[in-house]
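Same chain as my last thread, 271 residues:
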Amino acid sequence: MSNIHAVRDLDTSRPHSARMYDYYLGGKDHFPVDKQAAEAVADAYPGIFTCARENRAFMHRATRVLAQEHGIRQWLDIGTGIPTEPNVHQVAQSVVPEARVVYADNDPLVLKYAERLMRSTPQGRTTYIEADVNDPDSLLTAPELAEVLDLSQPVALSLNALMHFITDAGDPYGIVTRIMAALPSGSALALSHCTPDFDPPTWEKVTDIYTRSGTPVQFRSQNDVARFFEGLRLLDPGITVGHRWRPTHPAGPETPTDAQVSLWAGVGIKP
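reply #2:
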């Protein structure tokens, strides 16, 4: 397991995206400033709570499908966020107890709760590393990663609701390409990404709220999200709204609308 350094002082003077997401999921690991910003988002886009829940549900289904149907036994989850059970390793290890998972985030609040992410099965292994997706090389060469993952064997790269926090100026496609290039054939990319496609005026307001709180965002169209999967073999049903990716329950009156979810999701396999 990695050595977790002492948590740096938390900045509670302005909202933080991970703590806002915790609020959307009904968690308790946030501060009044986060709640205020999150409620401003919810006023503009009431579907944000549905979006957050469906994002988690997609992650669970994608992890299970990769473990059961594609033989994946290793995961690299970047932008982990504040732990919300079940986490990736709990889903993966419920299918394959020997699954190995590396979590990476650069938020000190996530670091504070990282012990929740390291309760592995005896057969498997998990660790947490403090790393920034904007610096993929330092992430890929972190000694903690090499202790847990064998990069000569397939790895699932899990990027859930992360890449919309990297604007085009930060080269999001280059980042994903760099990480996938380090993973062998048979590896996978599971990615979800918020989109303005179903209600552009609402998402302009959401963009403004995040940007004013000090977190630049860029929500992307389906075509722009598809670019993250270039060179990969997309699993059915391709890039679709989060709740429509391999649903485990038939559609019914409780099924959310595409506009409520406003999240593109997909899984691709590296040839």
